[in-house]
Structures are given as structure tokens and as C-alpha cells.
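User: Hey, my collaborator sent me this sequence without any context and asked if I could get a structure. I don't really work with proteins. Can you help?
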Amino acid sequence: MKVPFFRYPHVFEHHRRAVEDAMLRAASSGAYILQADLASFEEELAAYCGVRHAVGVGNATDGIELNLRVAGVGHGDEVLLPSHTFVATAGAIVAAGAIPVFVEIGPDHLMDPDDLEHRITPKTRAVMPVQLNGRTLDMDRLRGVAERHRLAVLEDSAQGLGSRFRGRMAGTFGVAGVFSFYPAKVLGALGDGGAVITDDDGAAQVLRELRDHGRDPHTGEVRRWGRNSRLDNLQAAVLRAKLALIGEEIETRRQLARRYHRNLAGLSQLLLPPSPDDTPGSVHFDTFQNFEIEAEDRDRLKLFLGEHGVGTLLQWGGKGIHQFAALGIAQRLPRTEHILARALMLPMNSSVTDDEVDYVCERITGFYARA
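Assistant: No problem. I've predicted the 3D structure and written it out in C-alpha cell form, which is a compact way to encode the shape of the chain:
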């Protein structure tokens, strides 16, 4: 059996009719930039997240940088974040003129709030939790630290759409949050795309100006220096069609996660992410953007699975941001490094079948039985 890590054609085929209709309607209208489909998508996304505003941007990386500017984070300021994230998280901080300072992660592979306090200096202005793998951090603990030290909370919730902590959506706990619509995401576009969400009317106004060359969206008057980072109407039309079906996507992933747990929970060589049934939905509701395990003899397991047709992935190439030597980051994070040396992502998306999950699990069980 061949089980690829992700079937990109599935992004289109799974909802082909709805996506085709949306694209044709948008294309035939001749309205491509900052038009009705984008406005409608922003309204619908804001309603789904339970916030006042959603602002479509070209990609999540731009969204992070724009959020930093809105929060007044700039040259010489320090921002706390985990190293287990895509380099874009820290890259946006650097682009804003600020300094990334890395924090350890915990067993759930998210920023450890207990490791925050001793890393705070007089230059620290913000903390940026990363809502990774479709799970939202314990934001009560993190916000407690942030409030004591008067730090802005800016969420990188690129992988968090749909996930909740105590009933609140990822991205809604701070000044603003950001989502990515990269094709492999729970809500995937047919290319790059992103959105920022916020409850702050003033922040939303500034974000709409920043994404469109600093222009006031109502008058066209240039109000500030900005950039070109607009989510285009074609992508917004596609995302509208798929947002209406996001509950189906998330439920499929949660069912697959349950199946992985039933098949693999007995293996002492593995540490699995929390099952959908491990914690009450009133605390954590996970969407399983990824299914990232920890495994003994990880590298040999990955090779073995590949030989048996199973696609796996080392997230970020198996490195934390601080481990890329070319970036010159003089930090050591022993716990993060230990986890990343064991971490492996298994196939997890709505194109994966129950039989394929069973096959992957049989191969994993067989690998450890041979050891």
C-alpha cells in the first residue's frame, strides 16, 4: 500500500464542484482585488472565530509582521516564542526590527509557560505563542505571565484554526492572531493566503491600511507606510466555499486521530499527541492539523516506513529555529532538542482512509516487534 504524507490534488478534488463554482463566479465578475468575495469571507471567518474582525492578507508571515507593527513592537524589542515552529515566525519578528528569544516546549510540543518568566528582560515587549499542530496552548497560564509583566500577546495560530482552549478559538487570546491558508492546512487555499483576526476596532483599521500600501480602505488616502499583502478574491472565493465545510474536515481528522490512538496506544516506544478523548472538549478541542508523535529510534522508523510506502515528515526538517547555524542564534534548549530528535509526523488529512491508518499502524507495530 502507498500512503503519501499529503495528497495535494485532494485539496481541489475533495470539494471540486464547490471550488469550481466559486472560482468561476469570482473570475467572471471581473472583481479580483479587495472586492465582495473577500469582504464576505472576512465576515464569515470572523463569525466562525467569534471575533469582530478578520483581515485577509497575502500570507500568515505578513500577518505576523503586521501584528507586531500594530502592537508597537519594533527595533531592539525582544519577543518570546518557541523554537519549534516554522522559521517564518521568527523571520517576521526580525523583519519588524525586533529580536526573537526562544522558550522551551513541553510534552504537548507547545511553548512551556513555566519557562517564560526567567527569559524576560527589560527589553521584552511581547510573547508569541504558536498554536501548533491544531492544538491551542493553556492560554490561562501564558496570559498570567504576560499580564504580570505587561507583555503584549500576539498569537501565531497559523496551524490553529478551529482549535479551542476553554471554548475560545486559537488566535482570540491577545492583541491579534493569524491563520495560514497554505494548501495543507485544515482550511487550505489553492496557493498562499492568510488572515489576521482581532476584536480591536482600531487594530483592524490599521491592519487594513497596512495590507494595502497604507491606504484608508474608505477614502483611498495614504495614511501610513504599508505594503502589498492582500488576500485576492479568487482565493477568498475558494476559502468561502471550504469554510462552509470545515466542520467535516475537522471531524475527519479527529476520527483518524482516534484510530491512530486505538492502534498505537499500547506501544511503549511511542509518545502520541493527546487523543480527542483524553481531555474534555470544554478544556481542549484539537483539530489535528498534524499528527506529530515521538518515537524511539525515530530515524530508522522513518526509513522503514518509507520502504513500505508510508510518507512521513520531520517538521521543519527536524530542527528548531535556534538549531539553524546560519542564523547565528546563541541559545541552547535541551528539552526542545530532545523532543525534536524523536518527533515524526504521520499522515493526517481528510484524504487518508481508515484502511491506510491501519496499514501505517501495522507497519509501526511490526518495526518495534522486530527490534
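In plain terms: The longest strand covers residues 53-57. You can pass these C-alpha cells on to your collaborator as they are.
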